[in-house]
């Protein structure tokens, strides 16, 4: 279980391609891997991944199986790419965001960006099959970040989410990039 509150931004350090899978090594900021062991769950851009080998320093490795590659944005990751990371929620910990399973159901596409002062509105196109589960004031995760749905048009197939921009940290997803939901 995750909250959708990014705890760290990691960098893809290495990728090994398998027949229908890939292993990614991710470098994390100091302290993120403290207590992390093989078998632990970590949300990487919203996908619940299992630590595949004992971490070495601040580097951990994860295996991406075919269903993860198909439903998430991780098939498109490259060495040097930034990824949002969150450790699994501990029993009794505060849930500052929303309860997320880390099971990615679809990829949305950022269709429109509107800036309003220090606010940023993203309009995301969502597959028709997913729209029945979404509603205004509900939530969806974008690259592992849990966001409240501000508006929805099920006929047109989109949702809108709003963010408060921080000048030093613009959103990672470009308008034409897919985002995991």
TrEMBL record:
Keyword annotations: Repeat, Transferase
Domain of life: Bacteria
InterPro entries for the chain: ATP_synth_asu-like_sf, Lumazine-bd, Lumazine-bd_dom, Riboflavin_synthase-like_b-brl
Stretches forming Lumazine-binding repeats: 1-98, 99-181
GO molecular function terms attached to this record: riboflavin synthase activity
Pfam families in UniProt: Lum_binding (PF00677)
Database matches in Gene3D superfamilies: 2.40.30.20
Domain Lumazine-binding: from-to ranges: 1-98, 99-181
EC code(s) of this entry: 2.5.1.9
Claim: Kinase is one of the keywords in the record: no
SUPFAM superfamilies (alphabetical): Riboflavin synthase domain-like (SSF63380)
GO biological process: riboflavin biosynthetic process
Entry protein name: Riboflavin synthase alpha chain
Organism: Chromobacterium violaceum
Gene: ribE_3
């Amino acid at each position: 279980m995750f909250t959708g509150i990014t705890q760290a931004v990691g960098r893809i350090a290495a990728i090994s391609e398998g027949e229908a899978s890939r292993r990614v090594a991710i470098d994390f900021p100091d302290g993120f891997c403290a207590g992390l062991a093989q078998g632990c769950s970590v949300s990487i851009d919203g996908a619940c991944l299992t630590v595949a080998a004992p971490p070495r320093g601040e580097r951990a490795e994860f295996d991406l199986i075919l269903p993860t590659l198909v439903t998430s944005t991780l098939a498109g990751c490259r060495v040097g790419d930034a990824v949002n990371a969150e450790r699994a929620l501990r029993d009794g910990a505060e849930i500052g965001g929303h309860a997320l399973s880390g099971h990615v159901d679809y990829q949305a596409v950022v269709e429109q960006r509107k800036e309003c002062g220090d606010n940023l509105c993203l309009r995301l196109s969502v597959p028709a099959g997913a729209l029945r589960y979404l509603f205004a004031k509900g939530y969806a995760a974008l690259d592992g970040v849990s966001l409240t749905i501000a508006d929805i048009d099920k006929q047109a197939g989109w949702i809108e989410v709003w963010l408060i921009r921080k000048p030093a940290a613009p959103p990672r997803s470009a308008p034409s990039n897919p985002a995991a939901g």
